[in-house]
Design brief:
With about 400 residues, this protein is an alpha+beta fold. It is about 20% helix and about 30% strand. The model has no long low-confidence stretch (mean pLDDT about 90).
Length: about 400
C-alpha cells in the first residue's frame, strides 16, 4: 500500500525527520501507491452534518469520521493496514520512535473534511490517551484532495512558537494539502501547528480540504518531555497588521494577549501536575486502608474498600500468611436487605453465596495459600444512595483468617 519508492528511501526520510525545523517532521509526497490512493479518494465519505457538530451541538465547517473501517471496503483495508506491524514498523523507522501504537478508537482522528471558512488555530495537541495513559507521540496527515490551490488557504503550518509571530525569532514551515502528500510530525509541548482560514472561490464551490488523520502513541516517552495530562491548547492566528496606522500599538496588544494565553497554558499544566500528585497520594492512602481483620496474616494492599467498612461491587485484598490457616470467615452487613449474590475468589478458586438477609457470615474453605494471596469480593448488590457519591455495595464488618 505504501509506495515502493518510499520504502526504498526510509533512511533519507529519517534524516529529514531528525532535523528540528522548527520541530521534528517530514513531508513525504506520493506516499501511497496509485490504486490504494485512488480508491480512498473515490470512496471518501460525504460531508455529514451530524459529524460536523461541536460539543455544544453547533454545526461547524469540519466533518470527522473516526470509524474509518466502516466507511467502505477500501477504507476497511486501509484501516487494517495502518494497524499492521508492517506499517507501524515503517513509521518507526522513519521517525526513530519505537513502540508505536494507534488509538483503537481513533479519538480525534479518521477522515477530516474542511469546507469553506474552516480554520484551525495554532495549537499543541492533548498529550495522553486517557483510556490507556499512553503518551501521544506522532501525527500523520495524509491528504486526499483531487485539486487544491494554495491560495485557498488550508496549508498546514509548523510553527516555532506563537509568541514569536511578530519577532525576528519567528520561524515556520508551510505545506500545501496536495493529493498523496503525507506529513508526519512529533507531538509535544512545542509542536505548534495550524492552518489559516479556507476561502474557496465561487467557481470552485463544492471543493473541500480532505485528509486522513492518524495519531500514534507510546507507553513511555523521553523524561524531559513528560508533563501532566492536558487538553489541546489553542492560540488564535494574529491579524495582518501591515499598513495599519496603529501598527506598533496593535502589536503590543496582541503580544500582551498571547502572553496571557501562554500563561494560562502553563498554569493548566501546573495545576494538572498538582492534581496528578494528589491523586497518587489518595491512591496510596486507599491501598493502605485495611478492613477489621484477625488471624495470622498481613494485609499489604486493598482496593475498593472504604474506611467505614463499605466496599464497592468489586473489592480486592492482597495478603500473606505467617501460619497455616484452614478457613476465611467474612462478616457481611446488608443494611438495605437487598437480594443478590456475592462471589468470593481466593487466588483461582471461586465460591458463590446468596445474599438476602441483613447479616451473613460467609465461610471460605482454604486449600492452598502462597506468599502473596489475592482475595476478591464481587457483589451485584447496589446500596448506593443519593447523599453519598460512592458506589456502595455491602459492609464488610470483619474478616477472620483461622
Amino acid at each position: 500500500m505504501i509506495n515502493k519508492e518510499i520504502l526504498n528511501n526510509i533512511d533519507y526520510y529519517n534524516s529529514i525527520f531528525k532535523k528540528p525545523n522548527p520541530f521534528r517532521h517530514v513531508a513525504i509526497d506520493n506516499f501511497l501507491d496509485e490504486p490504494s490512493l485512488n480508491a480512498l479518494c473515490s470512496e471518501f465519505p460525504p460531508f455529514d452534518n451530524e459529524k460536523a457538530k461541536n460539543e455544544f451541538g453547533i454545526l461547524g465547517p469540519k466533518c470527522v469520521h473516526t470509524d474509518i473501517a466502516a466507511i467502505s471496503k477500501s477504507y476497511n483495508i486501509f484501516d487494517k493496514h495502518i494497524r499492521s506491524a508492517d506499517f507501524i514498523n515503517v513509521i518507526e523507522k522513519i521517525t526513530g520512535i519505537e513502540g508505536l501504537v494507534i488509538d483503537r478508537n481513533m479519538y480525534g482522528g479518521g477522515t477530516h473534511e474542511n469546507i469553506n471558512n474552516a480554520e484551525l488555530d495554532v495549537h499543541v495537541d492533548f498529550n495522553y490517551d486517557t483510556e490507556t495513559d499512553y503518551h501521544r507521540r506522532l501525527n500523520l496527515l495524509l491528504y486526499l484532495n483531487e485539486d487544491w490551490d494554495e491560495k485557498w488557504g488550508g496549508a498546514i503550518e509548523i510553527i516555532s512558537n506563537p509568541l514569536d509571530f511578530y519577532n525576528q525569532d519567528y520561524s515556520s514551515q508551510s505545506y500545501n494539502c496536495i493529493k498523496n502528500r503525507c506529513l508526519i510530525f512529533e507531538t509535544n509541548e512545542y509542536s505548534w501547528h495550524g492552518f489559516k482560514k479556507i476561502n474557496i472561490p465561487n467557481e470552485k464551490a463544492g471543493a473541500s480540504r480532505k485528509l486522513i488523520s492518524i495519531y500514534f502513541y507510546t507507553k513511555d516517552r523521553p523524561e524531559d518531555e513528560v508533563v501532566a495530562n492536558h487538553g489541546t491548547f489553542y492560540f488564535p492566528y494574529p491579524p495582518e497588521l501591515k499598513g495599519s496606522l496603529s501598527y506598533e500599538e496593535d502589536v503590543r496588544l496582541i503580544k500582551k494577549r498571547d502572553m496571557l494565553l501562554m500563561s494560562s497554558y502553563k498554569k493548566e499544566i501546573e495545576q494538572s501536575q498538582k492534581i496528578l500528585t494528589l491523586e497518587k497520594k489518595i491512591t496510596d492512602i486507599e491501598k493502605s486502608l485495611k478492613p477489621n481483620y484477625q488471624g495470622y496474616v498481613d494485609i499489604s494492599e486493598t482496593n475498593g474498600f472504604f474506611l467505614d467498612g463499605w466496599v464497592e461491587k468489586s473489592c480486592f485484598i492482597q495478603f500473606s500468611c505467617s501460619e497455616k490457616i484452614d478457613s476465611i470467615y467474612i462478616d457481611i452487613l446488608n443494611p438495605q436487605i437487598k437480594r443478590g449474590n456475592i462471589e468470593i475468589y481466593l487466588n483461582d478458586i471461586k465460591q458463590v453465596y446468596e445474599i438476602s438477609k441483613e447479616a451473613h457470615k460467609l465461610e471460605f474453605k482454604v486449600q492452598k495459600l502462597f506468599n502473596l494471596n489475592k482475595l476478591k469480593i464481587v457483589s451485584n448488590i447496589d446500596s448506593s444512595v443519593s447523599s453519598d457519591e460512592r458506589e456502595l455495595s455491602v459492609l464488610v464488618s470483619k474478616i477472620l483468617f483461622k
